[in-house]
Amino acid sequence: MLIAVDIGNTDIVLGFLEGGNIVANYRMTSSVSHTSDEYGMMISGFLQMSSYSNDDVEDVIISSVVPNVMHSFRAAIIKFFGVEPIVVGPGIKTGINIRMDDPRSLGADCLCDCVGAYGSYGGPLLVLDFGTATTYNYVTDKGTITAGLISVGIRSGASALSNKTAQLPEVEITRPKSVFATDTRTAMQAGLFYNFLGGIERTVKQFRAETNESFKVVATGGLGRIIEGETDVIDIYDPNLIFKGMQMIYDRNRNR
């Protein structure tokens, strides 16, 4: 079994893969306060829940955008599973090129998304990841990432509203029944949803105008489930895109 780990700003998502197929996935909160033993015990528990043991783990690959978590997490993998994890970053073979001013600035999660999207669906394509931030990355038909855009995520926008105002509450991110909101919570939900949706559609339109190409739009990320059925600008929603990309990267580096 290969364990693919996506360490994000809000959550750590684990994918258990066998033969390239995702057999289970789990989510835990990203926390710099967790020790290596705590991480190791949590992963071991998830394995047991899926009827596996630590001995079933052949290798681990990690994509991380949270450097402060990496020391404890890497130590957990070595201690509990006896393997040195592959970490997506400089020096790793990905099969995709990055033509940006500073290629190292591209997040490992975005890189894995692009590898998974290009390997699964070809190019050209625009890859959207709805996470803590919403990211857009353009991949040419030759497999080159030529542009990246970062905007606020819908959950981050909701948090900003509740944290920066005295009377606005935290709200669930959901599709509102109507734009005609009649109370504070539904007013916030409708405002967040339609503002976010409109921003996505306008951004994709601008990419089409500036590339003058016909490209597919592939979306991923947990919050994408709320959006993908509400607009015709998204061609494919693939919640497992990052794990597909990590499997492809692992296959290129497994004999390291």
Molecular structure report:
The mean pLDDT is 90. With 256 residues, the chain is an alpha/beta fold. The chain has a 6-stranded mixed beta sheet with strand order 6-9-8-7-10-11. The protein has a 5-stranded mixed beta sheet with strand order 3-2-1-4-5, sandwiched between helices. 39% of the residues lie in helices and 24% in strands. Helix 1 crosses helix 2 (67-81) and helix 3 packs across helix 7. It has helices at 36-49, 67-81, 108-121, 154-164, 184-211, 224-227, 241-253; strands spanning 2-7, 11-18, 21-29, 59-64, 86-87, 97-98, 125-130, 133-139, 144-152, 216-220, 236-237. Strand 4, helix 2 (67-81) and strand 5 form a beta-alpha-beta unit. The protein has 2 domains: 2-87, Nucleotidyltransferase, domain 5; 97-246, Nucleotidyltransferase, domain 5. The two termini are 17 Å apart. The chain contains 7 helices and 11 strands.
Q: Nearest-angstrom radius of gyration?
A: 19 Å
User: What structural class do the secondary elements suggest?
Assistant: alpha/beta
According to CATH, what is the class of the largest domain? Answer: Alpha Beta
Through-space gap between termini: 17 Å
Apparent shape:
globular
Which bin fits the share of residues in helices? Answer: 25-40%
- CATH hierarchy: architecture of the largest domain: 2-Layer Sandwich
Instruction: Encode the helix/strand succession as letters.
Output: EEEHEHEEHEEEHHEHEH
The CATH topology annotation of the largest domain reads as Nucleotidyltransferase, domain 5
Count of distinct strands: 11
Main beta sheet, described? 6 strands, mixed
Strand line-up in the sheet with most strands: 6-9-8-7-10-11
Low-confidence stretches: none
Mean pLDDT: 90
Strand-residue fraction?
Answer: 15-25%
Oligomeric status: single chain
